[in-house]
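Hey everyone, long-time lurker, first post.

I ran two proteins through the pipeline my lab uses and got sequence/structure pairs for each. Pasting them in order. The first:
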Amino acid sequence: QLQLVESGGGLVQAGGSLRLSCAASGTIFRLTMGWYRQAPGKQRELVAAITSGGTTDYAVSVKGRFTISRDGTKNTVYLQMNSLKPEDTAVYYCQAVRDGGMDYWGKGTLVTVSS
């Protein structure tokens, strides 16, 4: 059972930056990794994803502001968030997906952006 632990959330002013980390308990070599977020009263949505080959995908709302990356030597995925907006406030979750569709989730880290 792969465990994922997110960190790096917190309170930041609009226009600021945060870097989230997701540390996996095992290798992420063949896994697609993703960051999702869920704001109060809203559905969970995909923010960014990165395949094992390094291909990335972003939600339109964060494209150009957020960058997802992975470090296989540390079994860690990062989400660099710049130019943060109040609407980015949410709990951010890390997801790992194996070939065949089995997925794993972290417990989330809260990001609050004040105006």
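...and the second, right after it:
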Amino acid sequence: QVQLVESGGGLVQVGGSLTLSCAASGSISSINTMGWYRQAPGNQRELVASLSSVGSTNYADAVKGRFTISRDNAKNTVYLQMNSLKPEDTAVYYCFIRNRYATVYWGQGTQVTVSS
């Protein structure tokens, strides 16, 4: 069984920064991609950023230049550094991992609220 534990969410003012962390544990086959989705009330879940095992990154247009994704393979942990936060970044952020068999695991979600 795979478990993803997220941390780092919270309340921040416009223009502030937060760093989300997601640590994976359990029966993990080779991790291919790690990343983050988010879901705001009334919206569909959307990809924020992803990072492959070979270092390829993918960012949503809305966060390019403000968010940075990174990973520590030894710790099976993925991070999301979020700078210059905007009210529209308010959402529940979910981390995910995709292993080499294309199985996807999800974290429980962490709330990020940006106040203006």
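Reply from user beta_strand_b:
Welcome! Quick read of the second one: The first strand starts at residue 2 and ends at 7. DSSP finds no helices and eleven strands in the chain.
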